[in-house]
Each structure stands twice: as C-alpha cells, then as structure tokens.
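Lab meeting notes turned into a lecture example. A postdoc, R.K., suggested we walk through two folding results consecutively so the class can see how the record format repeats. The first protein's sequence and structure tokens come next.
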Amino acid sequence: MEKNGVWPVLVFATADQRVSRQIQRARQAGQLRELLPRVHTSDLTTPPADLVRRHWFQLLGHLYPQAIISHRSGLDAQPTSAGDIFLTYKYGKKVALPGLTVHLLPGPGPQPDDRPFGEIPLYFASEARAVLENLQPARTRSGSSKTLLLTEVEEFLERVLRVRGEEGLNELRDKARALADTLGWAAELARLNQLVAALLATAPSKLLTSPVAQARALGLPYDPDRVALFGTLLTALRHTTWPNRPDQAPQPPGYYNLAFFEAYFSNFIEGTVFEVDEAHAMVTGNQPVPGRHADSHDVLSTYHLVSNPAEMSLVPATATELLALLQRRHATLLGERPDKRPGQWKERANQAGNTSFVEPELVRGTLHQGFNLYHALEHPLARAMMLLFIVSEVHPFDDGNGRLARIMMNAELVRGGLSRIIITTHYRQDYLRALRRLSRQRDPGLYLRMLDRAQAFTAALKATSYADLKGQLSASNAFEEGREEVAW
C-alpha cells in the first residue's frame, strides 16, 4: 500500500478496513483512480488500455490466482496483437478488460514443470504442456483461437531442434509423454510424435505443413530469420527502378585494367595490403611478391577470376548451380591457403563484431531459400545487390566470404552488360555501415543507395590504361582510408 506518501502503480482492494479507507481518501484527493473494479492506479494520465497491457501479468495474477498462461499464450508468452490472452483456470469465461480480452479455459491446474511467475500467483505453462495444448482441436470464436496454427507449432519444434539439437527435441517429447500420461492427452501426444518423427526424417515429410519444417525434414534446414531479411531486401529491390549504366570497358585492355583494381581493392578491404604499383607488377608478371606467398596469391587468384570474361559471365540458373559456383570460386580464391579449407562449407560458426552469421548446418538450406528470392529479380543490378547480401549474410566459408560475395555481385553485372561495382578503400566504411544496418536493423535504404552510388562512380571511370585509371582513382581519394573504424 502507500509508503512514505507514495502509492504503487497498481493498488488492489483488500478486506483490511483501514487500508480501504486510505484508498477511498486517496481517490477523493485525486491521488488514485479506478482502473478496474477493485483495482486502482496512481498513474492518472496513461490510458487504461495501455496500463492493462503494460501490467497484464500482475493484474491477471490478482484476478485469477493459480491460473496458467496456456495454449497459444504459453508459447507466445504475451497477449496477441489483437489483445487476446488465454489462461487455463477452474472455470471457463471470456472477460473483456481495457486493451485485453481474457479467455479463461477450464482445465487442469499447475503441474510440476509449470513455472511460477515470481511472487505473482500466476504460472507459465511448461514447453511440453504448451505444445500439447496447441495440438488440441480448437474452434475460432470471434476471430480468436486458443491454439496456434499447425505451421507455427511445427516452426517452434524446428527451432527447438535447430537450437538444442536432436537430444533437446527428444527431451521435450519425453516430458510431453510423461505429462500426457498424467493428464490423459493421448491424442495430442500422438500428433506430437508424428511431427517429431517427420522432423527427424523417420516419418514422411508430407506430414508437415510449414516450409521451415519441411526443409528440415528434407535435409535442407535454413535460417528463417535470415530468409525473412532477404525478403525485406527483395521487396525494396522490386519497388525501385534501377538505371542501366553500360559497362565502359567490356573489352581489353580496359577490361583488364578495371579487373585489376577490382581485385586490388577487394583484397585491401579485407586487410591484404600492397602498394598499388607493387600489386600491379605482381599481376602483370604473374609472380608473387617474395616473402608474401599467400597474400600475393589472394590478389592473384581474385584477379584471375574477375579478369576472365567467361568466368564472369556465369550466373546460377538453379539453387544447385549457385552452391556449386560458390564452392568452385571459393576453391580458386583460397587455393593457396589450405588451412582455410578452400571450397568446403564452414563447420564452425563464424562472426564479425557483434554479428553472428548463419549456423553451419543451415548454410546450404539458407542459400537455397535465398536463391528463390534472387531468382525473382530481373534487373542485373538488383540481382547483384541481392546476391552480394545473401553471401555476405550467410558467410558460408571459413574465410574469403567478402571477396567471394563481391565476385558474385560483379558477375551479375558483367553478364548483364552493366558497369561493375568497385568498393574502394575510401568507400569501405560506407560499405560496411550499409551492410551492418541492413543486417541488424533490417533497413535496406542505405544499402541500396550505397551500391547505387558505387556503381555510378565506377561507371564514370575511364579505363584506357593503368596509369590513367590510377590517376582518376587517386584524384577521387579512392586509396585513402577513412578515419572512423567500423565493426561489421
């Protein structure tokens, strides 16, 4: 109750007559207002619906002690966007509160694995209980259903398998089996057993309806959050009209001059640093710099890929071709670094800064899903932007992912007869910042503008000779590093 003249946000009615009189005086003094019958609040300005949604667990614990947050709410752990919350209680009823509709469902009380909500007399259904409850038959009344869609239950089980492995999924099933025996939920357990068996590929995948779960059963599990992010980028790409900037150097020697600087800057960005004339002499002589065998071959192998018109005209027509092309180009790119396992998918998770990339077991499936979105694009620049981000975000190999992503991007542009994109040293920070914003904030705007500007810059270069091109790049400060460090 009142402490030092200050009332808590929620004040509940009590049988204590002294406290009741205090509440009455506080109401008369304008210190409290009624929020619900027998519930008052010291917040005099926030709309009641917002207060109820903000403090729903405290309110429900007071109104329905020993209730269990169950069924779809047990897995969602919050009210639906429409304000529906489902509780298992000692009787059934539908109660409308400001901003919240409480669906009371008659059923068994708290079980040993149901989790109490701190000191509040309210419980969260255990995972096993909530899964079984969501496999019960349900009818939708007034736009609300007590259960999630079957696809959503499948996606929850797939997420358990993805995060905790087969052992974790089987542990969940074992707990559900024990609970089903206690509560008499044999039909729900049978349905759960079917779904788990399909996910573990010991039953037909046709039993599953969720694309994520089906992909798992077929041996191509993928990262659904990354695929949703690719979908965000696809929408932005399709909503934009892209210019046609013709390739200004489609034939030698301009083609080779531009390819050199593409290879040079792509490696410089990744920390393979040479003086530009030193690197050019190495490329034209096809000889590594003494004492720097591996670094030299990083530049040489990149140049051999991007300076080959036939190679740079290859783009994938199927998801299988995409995976094969990535592996072959990576094997060439890091051929002189056997410790980096050239051409082999990563076996350990990788990250840069605070960004963790796609888990190893999800690489192939995520690339398959990404290809479907890439294939829905027509303009070469849009396809290039999509493929660059897919490879960057999946990070399918131990090393060399950034260089490979830029090679895949420029192959799309060369194939389409458009100017390639060179990310200069000076532009590195803008490039990484745009990737990071799209990856972390799901905002593609900066990414699209950054690559559009980079292509416009590259298209304006005259590649008649190495010296001329170097002079243009020097005049634009392309070789200068920015002052601000950017963590991917």
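The second example is placed directly after the first for contrast:
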Amino acid sequence: MAGELILIVEDNARSRKLARDVLQYKGYQTVETETGEEALQLARTLHPALILMDIQLPGIDGITALHHLRAAAETRDIPVMAVTASAMTHNRQEIMAAGFDGYQSKPINIKDFVQAVQQMLERHRGAGGQA
C-alpha cells in the first residue's frame, strides 16, 4: 500500500534524490535528512513506516543511529533498511548483525530497491506494526 511515510537518511545528494524520486513515483511520501542525529529527531516526531539508512554518515554513523532508534520505545519498532555502498559479503553480515531489518547495496537497482521497500512494509504490517 503506497502512501506510507519513508525517512531517507543519506548524505549523498544524488543518492538521496534518486531514492526520493523513485519512492515518490511509486506513491510513497518521503522526508529526508543527511545526518544520523537529525534522523533520530525525525523518527521520534514523524514515526515513519520505514527508515532507509546509509551507514557512512557525517556525525553518528548509521549503525550508531540504529542502536539509538532501537533503544527508544517510540522508535524501536520502526523497520530500518541499510542502503550502503559497503557491499562486500562481510560488510553485509556485519550490518545485518547490527540489527537492520534489510539491506540494499548502492548503487541501487531500482526494481530490486522498490521490491525490497514493498516487502519490508508488508512484513512490518503483517507483524502488527504501524505501517
């Protein structure tokens, strides 16, 4: 079901624009930030259905931001997908072990990216989430 709010946390303007354009074209609402710190504030106030989190960010990185999200009652149940250029197998294993709900490597494949977003939202709805 399109229309859900997705928080895009990405410091690269081109990557952020691509994710925003693709998601908005598919009918999702988006809000964006370049930093993990602002992502935490936006997640607390807006309660997005999904967070797309880059790993390498200025200030706190995506893994640290995820730990903060999971530690707070108001944000712990929001699904968070890592979207990162760290595509080596061991990077993916480390990222998933950190507690992310999903993983997409950059540069994104648009079809795979949209499918992963849809599946993540459907799975969260099915688990009784707010999405």
